[in-house]
Amino acid sequence: MSKISCFVLLVMGLAFSHCANPGMQLRISDKGLNHANKVLKKVVENQVKALSLPNISGEEDIKGKLTYEVSKIKVEEYQIIDSSLTFVPNVGVQMNIINSKAIVDSTWSVKHWVIKATEKTAIEISGASIVVVFKISKTDTGSPLLSLHSCHADIQKVSIKSNKAIKLMQEKFEKGKLEDYVRELLNSKICSAVTEESKKWADFVNAFPVQHEIDQYTEIDYQLVNPPVFTDRYADVEMKGTFYALNHRTEPAFAPKPFTFSDAKDFMLACGVSDYALNTLSEAYFSANALKITFTEEQINHVLKELYGVSQNVSEARGSLRATKAPVVTLKPQNMTVELAGQIKIAFKEAEKHTSSEFTVDIASSISANMSISEENSKVTITGDLTLNSLALQVTSEDKTQASKFAEVEKSVKSFIETQFMAQLNGELKHGISFSNPNFIILNNLHFYTHEGFIQINTDIGRL
Ligand SMILES: *[C@@H]1O[C@H](CO)[C@@H](O)[C@H](O)[C@H]1NC(C)=O
Ligand SMILES: *[C@@H]1O[C@H](CO)[C@@H](O)[C@H](O)[C@H]1NC(C)=O
Ligand SMILES: *[C@@H]1O[C@H](CO)[C@@H](O)[C@H](O)[C@H]1NC(C)=O
Ligand SMILES: *[C@@H]1O[C@H](CO)[C@@H](O)[C@H](O)[C@H]1NC(C)=O
């Protein structure tokens, strides 16, 4: 639907940016929202207790003019007994505090021709329900934009614990009427307090950073490309998901294609990462000159053994591999393929002949992996099964007299990559590469899928 409306807008020549495809996408399900509600409950309870509330003053005609001012209003206790969070289609999120209770301390100054008193008073509030709808959209710069859409408060019962001055005031009101009066007063004040408070939340959300430095080479831009989409069962957050080299920010020459999540309703969160995002990561590392490895002595000796047999005495052997183009990632169901173009340089001395040899080997290869990610004992483990689809080599050397050795070098390097190098990588991946769960979030029940054009990770969250 949104794609159709985007198309219509595009045809009308309006709002071009509304149709940008995301490079990454998050889906938060109602299961995720239930979990967020548990976390938010504690946050709201603490926020309410930390509220600084304005004085309330007014006057009434109760057998003569009565003026009052309520000051030093402090919520001493606040407990949410029942609450929920729900999606509001096309708008955002609704926070339902279905039942809550509070004890509010305050100082009352009352002036009437029969009373003039200032007194500390405790008010017990129960059966308080508050329904607040937050609209969530996006700013021009791609940050989330939160605003208060509506607020409705209803307090069922108020009881006033008071001393003599307020008792006198209570007597001036008809029985129970003071409580009703305070209840009405509070009902009318809660939403203005919520409005004030939500401005602070909005400032916090609107200032949410949309760029993050990943390591010494790259950063990610995950600004929202479209306003979040809310249905009654989930919310989709569409992010740019572009990686850039830290000191070399150029826009990629390719754009993300649309992608659609497969079913994830049994999980709190689904995260989609497109091949676009992975390829910008690859380009970022490439332009930051980070895609190079130096072979270990053991690895280079393996090549030389292939080349000369064990008897040959070589020294000062060096070898390295660097990418000559950014690797290209293609995602297909259960198949992630990386096309690599690189260059291997090998240099060594032949002790007996007192000569140095140097070869350059250009390689073009394609490697596929069936990857999976699992989680256990707060460790996230990546495992995979690698296949070398193709490998083409071309050997050259500055030293033209070496030309007779090219075929041999090619054979040795090929054998090294096919057996030693791939076997080592495959061994590591089969064994699994583990990361400890970040300490602020615990991913439970993690599921990983490679789809056409994107990776989908479904997960529950154990702790926030
Ligand atoms: C609230 O009332 C107290 C006591 O009367 C007074 O000291 C304080 O200045 C008032 N605060 C505001 C914001 O009017
Ligand atoms: C290799 O060369 C080193 C010195 O360059 C020498 O000490 C060693 O004996 C040689 N080994 C063989 C097997 O020729
Ligand atoms: C994975 O995909 C690549 C092309 O994208 C293909 O060449 C390769 O054969 C596929 N591997 C498997 C195991 O399907
Ligand atoms: C990929 O791995 C999964 C799970 O290990 C397996 O079921 C599936 O057959 C594998 N697919 C391919 C193409 O190897």
Secondary-structure topology with pairs:
Layout lengths: L1 H10 L12 E6 H20 L6 E6 L3 E24 L3 E20 L4 E23 L5 E18 L2 H9 L4 H30 L4 E3 L4 E4 L7 E2 L3 E6 L2 E4 L23 E6 H13 L4 E3 L2 H12 L5 E10 L4 E5 L2 E16 L4 E22 L2 E18 L9 H26 L1 E4 L5 E10 L2 E10 L1
Antiparallel strand pairs: 1-10, 1-12, 2-3, 3-4, 4-5, 5-6, 7-8, 8-11, 9-10, 12-21, 13-14, 14-16, 15-16, 16-17, 17-18, 18-19, 20-21
Helix pairs in contact: 6-7
Bound molecules: 2-acetamido-2-deoxy-beta-D-glucopyranose (4 copies).
Pfam family, one: LBP_BPI_CETP_C
Family: Belongs to the BPI/LBP/Plunc superfamily. BPI/LBP family.
Keywords: Antibiotic, Antimicrobial, Disulfide bond, Glycoprotein, Immunity, Innate immunity, Secreted, Signal
> How many alpha or pi helices?
7
CATH third-tier fold name of the largest domain: Bactericidal permeability-increasing protein, domain 2
Q: How confident is the prediction overall: mean pLDDT?
A: 87
Strand content: over 45%
Shape: rod-shaped
What is the C-level CATH assignment of the largest domain?
Answer: Alpha Beta
Cofactors, ions and other ligands in the entry: 2-acetamido-2-deoxy-beta-D-glucopyranose
CATH architectural designation of the largest domain: Super Roll
Low-pLDDT parts are: 1-18
User: What's the SSE pattern?
Assistant: HEHEEEEEHHEEEEEEHEHEEEEEHEEE
Sheet/helix structural class: alpha+beta
Q: Rg, please? A: 33 Å
**Total beta-strand segments:** 21
The major pleated sheet works out as: 7 strands, antiparallel
The CATH H-level superfamily of the largest domain is Bactericidal permeability-increasing protein, domain 2
Q: How widely separated are the two ends?
A: 34 Å
* Residues in helix, %: 25-40%
